[in-house]
Amino acid sequence: MAQLPRTLRFGTHLAQGARRLAVDSALGGRRSFPRTVGDLTAENLSAITGRRITSAALLDEEPGTSTHARLALTGDDVPGSVFVKMSAGSLGIRMLGELAGLGETEALFYRHLAPDLGDRDLPGSYGAGFDPLTGRYVVVLEDMTTSPCQFPDTLHPLDKDQMGQLIECFAHLHATFWGALPERHENGSATEKFGWLTPPSQDPSNPITPLVMKSSARKLKDRADVGDGAFLWENFQPITVVIDKGPHTVLHGDAHPGNTFFRNGQAGLLDWQVVRRGHPARDLAYTMVLGMPTDDRRAVQHDLLDTYRHALAAAGGPEFNRDELFTRYRQCVIHPYFSALSTAALGGMQTDGVALEGLRRAVAALDDLDPVGALKAALSSGV
Fold first, then answer.
1. Rounded CA separation 289/161 (Å)
2. Over the stretch 205-220, which tens digit does the pLDDT of each residue have?
3. How far apart are CA 109 and CA 291, in angstroms?
4. Pick from 190, 127, 166: which is nearest to 300 by CA?
């Protein structure tokens, strides 16, 4: 019976996504909210940004899990160009986005939380809009092609200095919201600053996650080493509760190398579509396991965790116990493993080379960091 509420939440969430797509299809272009890049006008961009825009011209467009476009603008107090993220054109990708809440989450992040961070750790934002009836969203951001930025990826991984900068970026993010979140998540409203943030253990899609993991492993087993994840998907719900044990802060949730950038000697984060509340070790394990070659990560991970502890305290957060943080980091290795496994199996979100290299690094971390052992110890002790 304990599984029933989670199953009902998933069913409700799935129905909401399907309803939004159906309404969007039925209404077509009759709503004023833009559905495609071609629908972006000076008028609706002015409404989204709160600035007077007199013209908007398309510079380039790229499809993906979100539709990306660069626009040239004229108007009052507006940049010469902006980067826009919108709902994907593909119905299948849009449904996946609805299940994960990608567009709504990013719009809420830029509306409620980004102002507290400033422009140090993320692209500058000019406005974000979300249509709850159709699930369509628009986020208007700084055009980062106009400044000297470096954009790494998994096949061009981060070195120790870059990872150190990224760890300091996480310390700033986590410290900014330390102690600000309600002690418990209580299904708050999207109009509240923090009420919409959920811990990963309460994601509506959790009931199907073990099935996705097993299916992904079967699909990939002839192409790649998928590791031994049986304990993880057989005990998925209790181990997510262990990993979500407090203290909590705001998490980026998806900081693989392709969602990072470097500018003026500092690291920053892109794609805030899976922002959650949770323990900071979740962000640290995800970025360190996927962001560095395995041998490099093994050599410097303790130093990087020390960097994080000191930077978090210096930014106004607590100073974690060294051994406790390392244990939580070990437990959280299942997060990059699950993500890399499903990404490689699904295809289309990353190139095969990038996805399979991420999976190799995650499987190696399963071996040398032994998250299963750390999780079994926590479960047996009731911690």
1. 15
2. 888 889 999 999 999 9
3. 24
4. 166
Beta carbons of 72 and 143 less than 8 angstroms apart: no
Return the amino acid letter for 42: A
CATH of residue 56: 3.30.200.20
The answer to whether 85 and 70 have CB atoms below 8 angstroms apart is: no
* Residue 196 sits in the same domain as residue 52: no
Cα–Cα distance list, 12 to 65, 87, 341, 356, 361 (Å): 23, 21, 26, 33, 35
Kindly report, residue by residue over 37-62, the tens digit of the pLDDT: 999 999 999 999 999 999 999 999 99
Cβ 124 vs Cβ 142: under 8 Å: yes
CATH number of the domain that 346 lies in? Answer: 3.90.1200.10
**Cα–Cα distance for residue pair 167/329, rounded to 1 Å:** 13
Q: Is the whole-model pTM more than 0.70?
A: yes
Q: In a 3-state reduction of DSSP, which class is residue 27? A: helix
Residue appearing with tokens 């996805």: 355
Q: Is residue 239 part of a domain?
A: yes
Pairing of the two strands 66-75 and 81-87: antiparallel
Asked whether residue 152 is domain-assigned, the answer is no
Give the start-end residues of each E strand in 51-156: 53-62, 66-75, 81-87, 125-130, 137-142
- Whether the bond between 238 and the residue before it is cis, its omega within 30 degrees of 0, is no
